[in-house]
Amino acid sequence: MNAEPPMALRVLLGFLKAGRVLDGGSSVLLLGTLVLVWAPVAPLPMAALVAALILGLVEKYFAWRVALDVEFFTLLHEQPGQLEAFDAALADFLGRKAAPGARAMASRWQGARRLVRRQAGVVVVQAALVLVALACRLW
Fold first, then answer.
1. What is the C-alpha to C-alpha distance for residues 95 and 132, in angstroms, rounded to an integer?
2. Taking a C-beta distance cutoff of 8 angstroms, is the pair 129, 51 a contact?
């Protein structure tokens, strides 16, 4: 990244916090899907609704991971220079051995961005499936 690390970290936190908006949209879609599933529909719209339900659950997993990253990157922002201590504490919590040396921040940023992109992609496909189911019901 070309920006200074503290600023880059704050920008990343901003994007990660946008994951809450994605999660809210997914929750609305999930609720709508649950309502639509109870009405009798043809097999194609039902398949789309079931797939949307599954994607809603997948999105909840990504939302949890993104929210966790918000907490972790906030901690790293508030405690600069503590990457190795953070990695050791995380490894200890997970019951793993800590890897020697700290993982590079660029690698952490890439992983966090990838999570937000995946979360957004799941919400887009979830919305498309709900729209397909609605369009099938109207015809």
1. 44
2. yes
Could you please report the per-residue DSSP string of 93-131? Answer: HHT-PPPSSPPPHHHHHHHHHHHHHHHHHHHHHHHHHHH
Structure tokens at 50: 């079931």
- For residues 122, 126, 132, 137, the Cα torsion angle rounded to the nearest 10 degrees is 170
Contact 110, 10 (CB under 8 A): no
**pTM, 2 dp:** 0.82
Cα 89 to Cα 96: distance, rounded to the nearest angstrom: 10
Quick: pLDDT tens for 88-138. 888 888 888 877 777 788 888 899 999 999 999 999 999 999 999 988 877
* Alpha-carbon gap, residue 90 to 93, rounded angstroms: 5
Q: How far is CA 116 from the centre of its chain?
A: 5
In terms of C-beta distances under 8 Å and separation of at least 24 residues, what long-range contacts does 102-110 make, across chains too? 105/5, 105/9, 105/76, 106/1, 108/73, 108/76, 109/1, 109/8, 109/12
Who wins on pLDDT, 33 or 102? Answer: 33
